[in-house]
Amino acid sequence: MRKTTQFDAASYLDSEERQAAYITAALETGDADFVRDALGIVAKARGMGAIAKNAGLNRESLYKALGNTGNPEFVTVMKIVRALGLTLSARPAKQRRVA
After folding, report:
1. Is the pLDDT reported for residue 83 higher than 80?
2. Is 8 helix (H, G, I), strand (E, B) or coil?
3. Under 8 Å CB-to-CB from 45, ≥6 apart: which residues?
4. Domains located in the chain, CATH noted
5. How do residues 54-79 score in pLDDT, each as one tens digit?
6. What average pLDDT score do residues 6-16 get?
7. CA distance 49 to 36
8. Which of 31, 25, 28, 51 is nearest to 40 (CA)?
């Protein structure tokens, strides 16, 4: 039997720039589940306990909000984004050509 190792995306997000780029890519997809997962992965990379404390949440609430079935309220997302030292911004979407 072959041994395998668990893939952990958080271990590859080893700089603030990579973390911000990953969350930006998730936001650009418009997929709420991907955004939630990206926030969770970056929070894990930085330390869930520290992020929870900075966001004013307990660890259990943070894990629940960012878990596979989590559906965090926008105010919670904003607390997490601020705790990560990030901001959200908007720019015009690229328009698609209609044939």
Report:
1. yes
2. coil
3. 10, 11, 13, 14, 19
4. 15-83 (1.10.260)
5. 999 999 999 999 999 999 999 999 99
6. 87
7. 17
8. 51
